[in-house]
Automatic annotation (TrEMBL):
GO terms for molecular function: hydrolase activity. Residues 30-255 form the AB hydrolase-1 domain. SUPFAM superfamilies: alpha/beta-Hydrolases (SSF53474). Transmembrane segments: none annotated. InterPro entries: AB_hydrolase_1, AB_hydrolase_fold. This is Alpha/beta hydrolase. The keyword Hydrolase applies. Keywords: Hydrolase. It holds the Pfam family Abhydrolase_6. Gene3D superfamilies: alpha/beta hydrolase.
Length: 266
């Protein structure tokens, strides 16, 4: 399906979020919440690959253009409240899907309100990436976005130097990563500052957790996934073959098909 409209929604602290709607904007459907180092634009190929829902809404969280700033009182709770504004606007949402940090936000939202279905792809939870916070803070204070991108990829995601240099060689992709890295320190700090939950998604009728085959049982994403899974013992787990954390970029059609299956097999 194709994008039809973009909505701008005011949230707390004089900020705002935008939402890109694909398909019928008046029909109930799926809401997608990207995580850190990502935006709504990066999820367009997944949105267009989905066919089982009559509409797909991709949220552009605060801190990334054209949404508003993080603001000084930014926190994980603010993210959950922002998502609540989106869900109020799209009150017919049948399923909420979150990726990485967005997956944690989605699962927390399902503690705050009843939802028919929550799907999370490799959600992360504290103490994820805590060891990198001092270096990220220093890079942020120096506005050194090249260093921030490298810290996220090397120190947090655990990627090799060759992978990072390949990213750097693509000037357009590197420029996008530099732009998306600006909220990285605040987001990781907020994730690790939030009180650890004793359970997640308690008000969701159904919970599905997805992990890429490449990350199954391995740090950092697979081990954080296991930590989340322990908090939702009733969740159904799905493994996406041939993929890692960046399935929305490396296998959007495959991810879209899996999301379609999760609604059509209900």
């Amino acid at each position: 399906m194709e994008q039809t409209i973009q909505k701008k929604l005011p949230v707390g602290d004089h900020s705002w979020v935008t939402a890109d709607v694909y398909g019928d904007p008046d029909a109930p459907g799926l809401v997608i919440l990207p995580g850190a180092m990502s935006d709504a634009h990066a999820w367009r190929h997944v949105a267009t690959a989905i066919g089982a829902w009559p509409s797909v809404t991709v949220v552009n969280r605060r801190g990334r253009t054209p949404s508003g700033p993080l603001t000084g009182s930014y926190s994980l709770r603010a993210e959950v409240e922002d998502l609540g504004v989106v869900l109020d606007e799209f009150s017919g949402t049948r399923a909420l899907f979150g990726w990485s940090y967005g997956g944690l936000i989605a699962l927390l939202a399902a503690d705050a309100r009843p939802l028919p279905q929550v799907i999370a792809y490799e959600p992360v939870i504290r103490p994820f990436g805590r060891h990198a916070l001092p270096d990220l803070k220093a890079a942020h204070e120096a506005a050194d976005w090249d260093a921030t991108v490298e810290i996220v990829n090397r120190r947090i995601a655990g990627l090799g130097a060759a992978h990072v240099e390949a990213l750097r060689a693509d000037r357009r992709a590197w420029a996008a990563l530099r732009r998306l890295s600006r909220p990285a320190h605040a987001e990781l700090a907020a994730l690790n500052a939030a009180p650890p939950p004793h359970a997640l998604a308690r008000r969701a009728a159904r919970v599905d957790l997805i992990i890429g085959r490449h990350n199954h049982g391995t740090a950092p994403y697979g081990t954080s996934f296991d930590d989340v899974r322990q908090l939702i013992p009733r969740a159904e787990v799905h493994v996406l073959p041939g993929q890692g954390h960046m399935a929305h970029l490396q296998g959007p059609a495959e991810l879209g098909r899996l999301l379609d299956q999760l609604v059509t097999t209900r």
